[in-house]
């Protein structure tokens, strides 16, 4: 429908363009009375109804109350016969030419009309579909972008946790260090005391051994040869 | 020797992980492994050390007064708590991060209003099959044919057809 509209509105636009762009949705350059700001109602889908392709239906509805269904046909027939009989319209060679051309035109329109109309409508449909696609894509992209922005804002709210984690780590490290220190102190004190005990034990052992050695040495020294002989004699005998 | 001082704040790692954007995942994983290592180390150390058995040492060590002397000094000893140098730095980082976040959120809100305005324009548009060419030019100014620059049909360079 847009393509047909272009043909209609092209001369209008040509004259209306020089008036400058209005803020209102449709140009009102054909309106000669004061401007109304209401939006223009949508244009009708189909053209006016016609009978036999030429005569508008409004004539039939106009004459129906007075003359019924056959009224306009009677009017048409009477008019035609009047024109022919009174020779207001003269039948000559051009009548034949007009009839032949008319026949060919009517045949062509009847045969190829619908397909040509469908083709023109398809062209327009494609344009509209393309525009619609662009619009839908833009809308989905925008809604998605809004969603993502909201999500990023939600993410940013979680930044508190990072710093809590960091502070926790610091506290844990300090605590660990402190515990290590007190453990070290305890262990060192224990080691010192244990060392003292070991030292004492060592001293004692050494004294004992020394005493035992000394006693042994003295005992061996005190065994005079005099005393040793009677005890050695049974061994050699 | 007092027990633990600062109570550790419980961190919900799952919720934290949800909020991490994908391009910072690696940093988050590093942080988590380090935190877990530190927590494990802390858990492995007992809170107080095993107490020293002074009675046994008093009977065992011969030197007079040495054990008593040690005991007195040990009881009087206080271990200094390690100084906390990092918390102030962390607080400073937090302040800066808050400021950055506020700026980002503001910019993000501006972007959202812009997107919503465009979305409203698209939603309030009349359907294409009820538009005239003038309406189209009004809604999408880029479709307007420049009749001054290209006075002859098709009013745009042939390459743009």
From TrEMBL, chain A:
GO biological process annotation, one example: proton motive force-driven ATP synthesis
UniProt keyword Cell inner membrane, yes or no: no
Key words of the record: CF(0), Hydrogen ion transport, Ion transport, Membrane, Mitochondrion, Mitochondrion inner membrane, Transport
InterPro entries, per database record: ATP_synth_Bsub_B/MI25, ATP_synth_F0_suB
Chief site of localization: mitochondrion
Superkingdom, taxonomy of origin: Eukaryota
Signal peptide: none
Pfam families: Mt_ATP-synt_B
One GO MF term: proton transmembrane transporter activity
CC terms in the record's Gene Ontology section: mitochondrial inner membrane; proton-transporting ATP synthase complex
Compartments where found: Mitochondrion; Mitochondrion inner membrane
Subunit (UniProt): F-type ATPases have 2 components, CF(1) - the catalytic core - and CF(0) - the membrane proton channel. CF(1) and CF(0) have multiple subunits.
Family: Belongs to the eukaryotic ATPase B chain family.
Job of this protein: Subunit b, of the mitochondrial membrane ATP synthase complex (F(1)F(0) ATP synthase or Complex V) that produces ATP from ADP in the presence of a proton gradient across the membrane which is generated by electron transport complexes of the respiratory chain. ATP synthase complex consist of a soluble F(1) head domain - the catalytic core - and a membrane F(1) domain - the membrane proton channel. These two domains are linked by a central stalk rotating inside the F(1) region and a stationary peripheral stalk.
Name of this chain's protein: ATP synthase subunit b
Originating organism: Coilia grayii (Gray's grenadier anchovy)
TrEMBL record, chain B:
Annotated protein name in UniProt: ATP synthase subunit d, mitochondrial
Primary residence: mitochondrion
GO cellular component: mitochondrial inner membrane; proton-transporting ATP synthase complex
Keyword annotations: CF(0), Hydrogen ion transport, Ion transport, Membrane, Mitochondrion, Mitochondrion inner membrane, Transport
A Gene Ontology biological process term: proton transmembrane transport
Pfam family, one: Mt_ATP-synt_D
InterPro entries from the UniProt entry: ATP_synth_F0_dsu_mt, ATP_synth_F0_dsu_sf_mt
Job description of the protein: Mitochondrial membrane ATP synthase (F(1)F(0) ATP synthase or Complex V) produces ATP from ADP in the presence of a proton gradient across the membrane which is generated by electron transport complexes of the respiratory chain. F-type ATPases consist of two structural domains, F(1) - containing the extramembraneous catalytic core, and F(0) - containing the membrane proton channel, linked together by a central stalk and a peripheral stalk. During catalysis, ATP synthesis in the catalytic domain of F(1) is coupled via a rotary mechanism of the central stalk subunits to proton translocation.
Subcellular location(s) of the protein: Mitochondrion inner membrane
Family: Belongs to the ATPase d subunit family.
High-level lineage: Eukaryota, Metazoa, Chordata, Craniata, Vertebrata
Species annotation: Coilia grayii (Gray's grenadier anchovy)
PANTHER family with a match to the protein in the record: ATP SYNTHASE SUBUNIT D, MITOCHONDRIAL (PTHR12700)
Regions annotated as coiled coil: none
């Amino acid at each position: 429908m847009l393509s047909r509209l272009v043909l209609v509105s092209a001369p209008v636009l040509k004259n209306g363009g020089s008036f400058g762009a209005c803020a209102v949705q449709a140009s009102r350059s054909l309106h000669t009375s004061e401007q109304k700001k209401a939006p223009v109602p949508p244009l009708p889908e189909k053209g006016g109804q016609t009978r036999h392709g030429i005569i508008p239906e409004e004539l039939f509805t106009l004459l129906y109350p007075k003359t019924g269904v056959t009224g306009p046909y009677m009017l048409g027939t009477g008019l035609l016969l009047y024109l022919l009989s009174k020779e207001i319209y003269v039948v000559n060679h051009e009548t034949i030419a007009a009839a032949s051309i008319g026949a060919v035109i009517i045949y062509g329109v009847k045969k190829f009309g619908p397909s040509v109309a469908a083709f023109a409508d398809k062209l327009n449909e494609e344009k509209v579909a393309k525009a619609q696609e662009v619009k839908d894509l833009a809308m989905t992209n925008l809604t998605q972008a809004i969603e993502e922005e909201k999500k990023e804002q939600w993410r940013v709210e979680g930044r508190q946790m990072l710093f809590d984690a960091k502070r926790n780590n610091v506290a844990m490290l300090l605590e660990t260090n402190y515990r290590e220190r007190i453990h070290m102190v305890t262990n060192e004190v224990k080691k010192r005391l244990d060392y003292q005990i070991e030292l004492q034990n060592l001293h004692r052992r050494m004294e004992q051994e020394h005493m035992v050695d000394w006693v042994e040495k003295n005992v061996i020294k005190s065994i005079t040869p005099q005393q040793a002989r009677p005890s050695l004699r049974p061994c050699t005998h | 020797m007092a027990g633990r001082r600062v109570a550790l704040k419980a961190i919900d790692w799952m919720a934290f992980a949800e909020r991490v954007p994908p391009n910072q995942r690696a940093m988050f994983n590093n942080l988590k492994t380090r935190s877990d290592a530190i927590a494990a180390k802390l858990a492995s150390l007992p809170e107080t050390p095993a107490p020293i058995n002074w009675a046994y040492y008093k009977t065992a060590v011969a030197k007079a007064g040495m054990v008593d002397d040690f005991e007195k000094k040990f009881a009087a000893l206080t271990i200094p708590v390690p100084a906390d140098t990092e918390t102030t730095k962390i607080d400073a980082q937090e302040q800066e991060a808050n400021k950055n976040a506020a700026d980002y959120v503001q910019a993000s809100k501006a972007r959202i209003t812009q997107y919503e305005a465009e979305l409203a324009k698209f939603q309030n548009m009349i359907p294409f099959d009820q538009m005239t060419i003038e309406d189209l030019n009004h809604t999408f100014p880029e479709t307007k044919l420049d009749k001054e620059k290209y006075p002859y049909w098709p009013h745009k360079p042939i390459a743009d057809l």
